[in-house]
Every structure is written in structure tokens, then in C-alpha cells.
Amino acid sequence: MKKFDHIKVRSYEEASRVVREGNGAVEPIAGGTDLLGTLKDRLLPDYPEAVVSLKGIAGSRYIEEKDGMLAIGAGTTLKQIAESPLVKDYCQALSEAACSVASPLIRSTATIGGNVCQDVRCWYYRYPDSIGGRLECKRKGGDTCYAIAGENRYHSIFGGMCTGGSSCQHACPAGTDIPGYMAKIRENDWAGAADIFFKYNPMPMMTSRVCPHGCTQHCNQSVYGESVNIPAVERTLGDYILKHKEEYYKAPHKETGKKCAIIGAGPGGLTAAFYLRSAGHQVTVYDSHEKPGGVLRYGIPHYRLPKTIVDEFCQALETLMGIRFVMNTTVGRDVTVEQIKADNDAVYFGTGAWSQPVLGLEGENLTEFGLNFLEEVNTYLKKAMGENVLVCGGGNVAMDVALTACRLGAKSVKLVCLEQRGEMPASEEEIQMALEEGVELYNGWGLGKVLESEGKVKGLLAKRCLSVRDENGRFAPKYHEEDTMELASDFIILATGQKVELSFLGDHLSSQIKTSRGLIDADAQSGRTRAQGYYAGGDAVTGPDLAIRAIAAGRNAARTMNLDLRPENGGEQQSAEGAEELAKERFTTFNVEGVERTKAVRPGELPASERSLTGEDRSSLDQEQAKQEACRCLHCACYAVNPSDITPVLVMEGARIVTTERTLSAKELFTSKLTVQDILHRGELVTEIRIPRASGETHYDKRRVRNAIDFAIVSLASAFEAEDAVVKSCRLVLGGVAPVPYELPEVEAYLRGKEITPETAAQAGEIAMKHAFAMSGNEYKIFMCKDAIYNRVMEAGR
Amino acid sequence: MKEHLEQICMTVNGVPRKFVIGDGVGCVSPSETLLDTIRDRLGLTAAKRSCEHGACGCCTVIVDGDAVASCMVLTADCDGSSVTTLEGLCDPVTGELSPLQKAFADNSAFQCGFCTPGIIMSTKALLDQNPNPTEKELTEALSGNYCRCISHYQVIRTVMGFINEMKRKEA
Fold first, then answer.
1. CB nearest to A108's CB, from B1, B52, B68
2. Cβ of B96 under 8 Å from any chain A Cβ?
3. Which residue of A546, A648, A678, B96 could cross-link A673, Cys pair, CB 3.0 to 4.6 Å?
């Protein structure tokens, strides 16, 4: 075993303090039968520097009656509990459960406190580090659960449990609960899916088309095959929402009387407008363009995002929700920010990054600015340009410019960028598409100067780029000045970035909220600026970035603005709702056949020859296809089962768990979160377990492969009060079948007052398994549960 | 971490032993198991190192009257304990086997013998606490001791026979 220190303490208080001060490097050890196994196999990425031994705490082992309850010290061994007449008298089931743990050799050392806090026995989780390295599974803070598409015969039959979200959700700048809405779509509950989606983003019909979907790169299905086609499923959901737009873009029930102004009608501004209006505020959106949508309308080409969709969305905001749009109005020129502020309680800047950065290139004045080019084409669907177009830049805007030039009928389109093919910021899909349509790529070249003759562009002198970034990853291109190349062109478009322009703020506000880098200084989380009542987010704060980040910023700022405007409606109410929701959707499930499919469902795509400037390249999946694709989602969570024999009994008996800080119900401590450690604070130690006297007859039935050592495959903690073969009351809790002990309130309600017959006993088993969800290899556990329940019910009638 | 030179005392097979817990030469490492200490420091090699996870029972010794898997106990946690290994069962002076050990030898209640020290220690702990167990109780007490040669049948027969013999002698 790798070395660790051993700290002796005299009291729980001292132990708590040592663990707390250890800051994660000190683990408490009681009997050690669980922890030493974990340490020997180096199961966890963190290894303690020291263990603090609870064995020396005097008076931690006792079994006694206290205030009419059975009180057991946390340091009491399972052997003592199994042999105690007092335990048998209070709760036979606990005695049986203790006696069923492992073997006598372990029971003589293991304590009840350690037992209830023990770690799972999942073979992926416990894969030893010495044989090829431990597995960083979901439970260890890794990405996925290997049992989903692996060997799962001993895993959960009620689904998994997640703490801390999934990797795709973490990859999404808006934090969208992707597995959550996928699960709803699998159930064909599109309204439910939309409800989840709207918590994060009000415009899936846009983001599904324009977002690069970094989430797909973090999809764990890619371990087995292709990632889940998240954009395609999202798009179908967007189609659904637009079809039912009256239900999703509604005027608020109640007006608050507060007024908010949004400056900039782009994705971020419209998102803020949506959430603020939903919260009941009066919202006015200002924008210098003719129509709302910002970059969605003017930056993104029609073939990627048809403007009819932007129209439909913006109209819904205006006519259905009652958001007011003031277009063709340049703030700072037509109206000042101060005037807007005077009319409103809060102002949000979502003004984006629309300006051309000056590169200082010789002949730069003869070039076209990429965003202007797109804006013009998107507005008029035509544009006078040369025959041989040269696009400079390697990002998605450059790709849009190049493709647009192709589709406008350019004879040739070349694209030159600093980055090598593999480091281009544009998404691979976009690059592929450009190549398909005949764009020639010149990777690793920087801009030297524009070649001209009599004021006409002739081409570009490019110089070799040796490296794009410095050792710290900062953008600092290095060139080989002598290694040059001439690229012939009569029309050069610079798509090498955009700049934030803030002169509209005016001097006074600028001095308060403008940073030295020429951006708005706003808190990334709350969107608050230093000027009271002013909020900002999106490109104006971060510099040019993805639409989804602007959407996230708009949503976060709207939440803050709402809180600031109506402090009396604090966040507490929301969290209460959240907790309830969490409880309801406690267990995650997936589609057993679906997760095995390694190929993604792909939407129809026009062949390169048929693509046009205005028609959308790709079609939507229909709902059935999207559902099939959602079935491929692994719903990454932990699918291991609770290993303890004691906890199902404690939950069944309504035991109370005393810790160094508080007293918790067994149900709360053992069933509300994936692990006990998710609930206990650092250094909080279990000190005593209190069990009320059981009413009726209690038992613990355990099914396992071998009768010694093994953990339960299925276990049943039960309490029955029966009279003349009629159930008066009963309590049933399953162990070893779900990530936490699994209560059966429906079965209890069914059995109450029933005469015990083979039919009722069988029916009880059926009801118990109503919500069961078998994985590929563990359906037998369902039969085993039914059998255990049948036998126990029949036994109660004897 | 903290500075310490923690000293622990325990009795092993009736002999008082002192160990200093620490990282120095001759010290018992804080992460050392009882099995490592009795085998590697005291040379008491009857207890076997096998699964290292408390699942096989080959390392069974008796600590304060209970049979335990010594691979799952830290020596640093054994301050004040009384430990008995198989070596402690025979006569310390003459080296004569205890009656229980003799019974195992006389009845060939083993095959390769690797698990036998653990089985004898589990049996001993049971008989110390319950001199007259039923066969079921014996089977349960030995349920943590694995034998890959399937010597269990001889073991149960031998121990039950041994118990009857003891009873007869007492009577």
C-alpha cells in the first residue's frame, strides 16, 4: 500500500477538525475493511496523505436504549450488532442484515458507521490501478459509465443517478441539459423536452443551425462510434417549438410594471429580452439594423439559417410576447444611452462585435470586410465582386464568406489562413463543405501586402507563417519574411476577425464601464457592470465569440436584472422547485438498443451541385428520426448499485443518523443523492444511529451469488404487520437494485388491507417492478426482485 | 502532516511487543497492515498473504478474541490488542501441537495446506467463544475462509469430531 500517515484522535470533534483541516488529504478510517481495499487498489485519483483513526475514540461502540429508541454507536462492529439480543428485540431485520455482511472475519472488524458510508462495488469503479490504470468513470468525476454499454449484470435496474451534470452539458457554454431533453424526446414528450430546453436557451431553431456544437465532441457515444447528432435532434425540437409557438412565446401572466431596454437585437439581446419579458417586465429592444436578429440575420448566410425562421422567431417575440422593437435606431446617434436609461429601470448591452479591425496592411483600403460582405449578401442576395475571390481567415466567418462567394458565382475562391489545416478555428464540417464546393485552402500563410495596379486589386503577397501561437498559447504569429508567395485575385475579403465598437456609450459611461481592451467591463456570471442599472454580455464583453455564449450571457444577465428589479422574489423559490424536480427525475434511463447503435442518424443534405445561396443545405429530421437519434444518448450517470446491507434497513425503519453536525433521516442521507459523501460535509462524521422499535415483523432477505463475502444482487428489507393473513401495514425497501436504497410506496399502498394470497403476493412484485428499467445484462434481477417480494409477502401471511 | 513518534504495544502469542509507528528505520509504517507486521517483522509466517482484501481468510489471526482478516487491519490501530497467530496455539516450550491442530493433522483436514492456518484460527476463535457449536454455526464461522482444494468437508467432519471428543473427555 502506498504510504500514508496515521493520526490518532480521542474524540469525534477532534477527528472532524483534522479531516476538515486536511482539506481533502485526510480520510477517516473506522474498521478499515472498505477503505483499505480502496487504497490498496488505488481506485481513486486522490490518495490521502493521512488517515485519522476513529478506532481509538472511547465510547464509540455501544448498543443501548435511549429515549425509547435503539441507539448504536458508529464504531460498533457488525459482529456486535448481529449478536446483540437488544438489536434482535428492536429490529430483527437489522440483526439479519448485519449478519449477512461479508464474512465473520470482516464483521468482527467492520463498523456500522463505515458500512453506511462505504463505496460501491461496481467492477468498473473498482478496476485496480495496477492493471493498466484505473477507470475514470462518471462516479469518479470522469465522463461516462462503462456499464451502460458494457458488462452490467450487477448494475441498477432502476436507472442511474447523476451528480454534477454530464460532459456534453459541461461543454455547452449555455450549460444545456442535453441528456435531460433527450430523455424526454425518447418518451416522445416533446413538450417536456421543450420545457427543459427553454431553461437554457429560447431559440433552438437558431442554435441548432448555427452553433458549432462543441457538445458533440464531448459526447461519450464517440467512444463507441459517432457522437449523438445533437444539432439534428435540437433542430427537430426547434421545429416543434416553432410549430407550437403560441405555447412557448407567451405574454407574461402578470406585468411587473418595470421596464427594461435591450440594446442590440442579436442572439444575446433577444435572449435577455425573452427571459425579461417572461418575467413580466416591459421590454424594448433597440437596434441600428432594419430588422431584428443581429448576426443571425445579417452574418449567417441564408443557406445555413433561412431568414424566414429568424422572421418567425422575432415576430413571435414581438406579437405573441409583446416585446417592443425600435429598429433603424443607432444608439449614441439617434438616441443616447442616458435617454434610454431615463425611460427604463435597467439596460442591457448586447451590442456585439461588428467593426473591422485595422490590420495595417499595405493596400488594406482596397479589400472588403468579411462581415460587411455577408451583411450585404444576406440583405440583397447579390453583390458585385470580382471573379477570383481570395478570402483571408480560418474561422467560421471566413468559411461562410468563402462559401457565399462560391454560391454567388465566383470563378475561383481561395482561402488563406495562418493556421495549419488541423489548427483552423473553423469547424471541420464547415471546412469539408468549403472543400467540396471547390474552395482552395492555403494553410500556414500570413498576409504580406495587397498587390495592386492602378488602384485595382491584383492579388496578395503572402508570407510563410511559422507558428501561430507562443508557448503560452497566446496569439502571436511568427513569419518567415523571405518565404513569400503571390496569390492572384481581383477581390480580397478580410475575414480575420471583428472588433467591438463602443463609441455609442458616450464619454461618461465609457469612463465607467469600458475596459482598456475596448470591451465592456461586466461580470461574466451576473452581467452586472459597475454602472448601476446597466448590464452587458456577449461579444461586447468578451470580444468575438459564439452565439451560444451570447445567449448564455443574455440569460444570466436577465436573471440578475430580474433579481435586482424584484429583490423580494429571491432565488429561493426557484431552488425549491429545482429540488422537487430533481427528486422526481431522480433516476436516469437510456434506450438499451439505441445506445448500441454506433451510426448517427443524418439529415438529408443537398449535393454540392444543387446547393444555392438561399435554399437551406440540410433538411430537418422528422420527429421519429430525431427520437431514434435521441435513443443513442447514453444518459451518462452512475449506474452502480448501493452496496450496503444496512442502509435499506435503516431507510425502511425510518432511522435517524446522528453526525458531528446534525441529525439526518436515513432517507435523506441514503437516498437523496448518489453518495453519502455528496450530503455530508467535509469532516462531518456519523457518530450514532437511532432506530425506533419496529412494528410488526421485520426481515432482511439477501440474494447473492455465494452465501459468504458477496454483496447483494437483490435484497429486501421488510416490515409486516399482518392479522389473519391480512396486511395491516408494511414497509418495503429494496437494496442492490438502484444507486440508492429503493423504496416501494406503491407496493405498500397496494398491500395495505389486502388478504395475503399468491395472487396479491405476485401482484405486489409486479407493482414493485413497474418502473424497472433493465440494462442489457441484468433483466434477471427484475425476476429476482419479484420472487423476493412474493416470498416475503407469503411468509407474512403464515 | 504532524510530527510524531507514536508507540504502540500489543501482545503477540503472549509476548508483549512494542512498535514505533513512523517512517524511520525499524519503525512500523503508519500504512502497514497487521499481516505485514507479523509476517515480515516477527517472522510468524503461518498467516498467509493471499487476496489482500479480506475475502479469502488465509491471513486470519485472532485479535482480542475475534477472528479477523489481518490484511485489512492497520498495525497502528492495534495498540493494546492481544493477537494470536497459529504459532501461538502450540506449546511455547515443547512446541507440541494443540489438540485442535493435532485433530487437523490426524484427520488430514487439508490438501495443500495454504488456507489451513486461517481455517484453524477461525475455528479456534469460534470454539473459544462457543465451545459447543452446531454444524451450521461452524459452517458460518468458517464462511470467510476459502479453500481451493475443497478440504471443507474434511474440516467440518474433523472439527465436529473434535468437539465430540472434547465433550466425551469432559464427561
1. B68
2. no
3. A678
- Asked if the Cβ–Cβ distance from A32 to B2 is below 8 Å, we say no
Q: What total of structural domains would you count in chain B?
A: 2
Is B156 part of a structural domain of the chain? Answer: yes
CATH fold for the domain made of A364-494: FAD/NAD(P)-binding domain (3.50.50)
Residue-wise pLDDT tens digits, A745-757: 999 999 999 999 9
Check: CB of residue A85 under 8 Å from CB of residue A113: no
Indicate where chain A has its CATH 3.50.50.60 domain(s): 257-354+500-565, 364-494
CATH of domain A167-247+579-630: 1.10.1060
The CA R_g of chain B, rounded to the nearest whole Å, is: 17
Domain that holds residue B17: 6-86
ipTM above 0.90, yes or no: yes
| Rounded average pLDDT over A112-137 | 94
Q: Are residues B64 and B127 in the same domain?
A: no
- Are the beta carbons of B69 and A105 separated by less than 8 Å? yes
Say whether B33 and A3 touch across the interface (CB within 8 A): no
> CB of B145 within 8 Å of any CB in chain A?
yes
State percent of chain A over pLDDT 90.
Answer: 86
- The tens digit of pLDDT for each residue in A251-261 reads 999 999 999 99
- Our CA-based measurement puts residue B79 at a distance from the nearest CA of chain A, in whole angstroms, of 9
Listing from the earlier edge strand, what are the strands of the sheet with A259-263? A324-326, A282-286, A259-263, A346-349, A534-536
Q: Is the pLDDT of residue A573 over 70?
A: no
Q: How far apart are the first and last CA of chain B?
A: 60
CA distance A198 to A180: 12
Name the residue facing B57 among A53, A105, A707 (closest C-beta): A105
Task: Determine if residue A736 is left, alpha or beta; phi over 0 gives left, psi from -120 to 50 gives alpha, anything else beta.
Answer: left
Domain presence at residue B93: no
Residue of A nearest to B22 (CA): A5
CATH number at residue B144: 1.10.150.120
Residue A20 reports pLDDT greater than 70? yes
How many Cβ atoms from other residues are within 10 Å of residue A45's Cβ?
A: 11
Same domain (yes/no): B72, B10: yes
Q: Nearest-CA distance from B94 to chain A in Å? A: 30
Q: Which fold has domain A257-354+500-565?
A: FAD/NAD(P)-binding domain (3.50.50)
Give the C-alpha distances (Å, rounded to integers) separating B76 from A217, B5, B39: 49, 12, 16
